Amino acid sequence: MTDAALLSTLALVLVAMLLSLWQQLRLERDLLVGTVRTFLQLLAIGYVLTFVFRQDRWYFTAGVLLLMTLVAAHNAAGKGKKIPGIFWRVILAIGLGEVVTLGLMLSLHIIEGSPRFVIPVAGMIVGNAMVAAGLVLNRFQADIRQRRREVEAALALGASPRQAVEGVLQAAIKGGMLPTIDSMKTVGLVTLPGMMTGSILAGADPLLAVKYQIMVMLMLSSATAISSIALGFTLYRAYFNQAEQLIIPGNSARP
């Protein structure tokens, strides 16, 4: 793609801004900021990846992976700011999903160990784990407030904290995993995902592109499952004190 063709795509953003003005959505500034950040951030990472690929050193690759994980954890943790230690809980969940999934793919020789393969694959893993973590956080916080009396009743009857929040915890974990599962059910029929589309546009054989996409979908199912479960099982502990009493972080008053 030429630079002129790339710049011409700004017309698509202009369409979105005009529609926002027409409907008085007041999203013009956000669209402008998002467009500028898209250009700057992607161009910057393009130069960084060019450097890392040329150097082909493990410590540069590790640095990029660490940065991606930290940014993803910070973004997801923002959905539960009042929960004690939420950043570390999220980074543990995302990191675990990344390490296990990427480690298996490398140990089974599914992908090569070079930065050109590791970084893009890790980026997909971390990105989807981040989304899953955010969904788990949103669902758990909403459900624990709605079902507070149910949880407290279970505790009063002698249930452990884990038993008392069983239903809330399962719903939150499912909420983190369902988008990936739903996309697996419709891939190829409703959407042609990024890996497959990019490979085809780059000139790869469609069947080869399909094989890569299958790998990606299965990889993401593993990463989101691990991250969702890991976050759920560390998250619920923040809602109980040492006496195993339910507390709602950020809520000083009882309903």
Please describe the structure with a list of short key phrases separated by commas or semicolons.
255 residues; mainly alpha
Which secondary structure elements does this structure contain, and how are they paired or packed?
Blueprint: H1 3-8, H2 10-22, H3 28-55, H4 58-77, H5 86-107, H6 115-146, H7 148-156, H8 161-164, H9 166-186, H10 194-201, H11 206-235
Helix pairs in contact: 2-3, 4-5, 4-6, 5-6, 5-11, 6-9, 6-11, 9-11, 10-11
Structure, briefly:
With 255 residues, this protein is mostly helical.
Number of helices: 11
Distance between the termini: 58 Å
Radius of gyration over alpha carbons? 21 Å
- Low-pLDDT regions: none
Structural class: mainly alpha
The largest sheet, given as strand count, sense and whether it forms a barrel, is: none
Helix coverage percent: over 70%
Output mean pLDDT. Answer: 90
Explained architecture:
This protein has 255 residues and is an all-alpha fold. 76% of the residues lie in helices and 0% in strands. The chain is built from 11 helices and no strands. The model has no long low-confidence stretch (mean pLDDT 90).
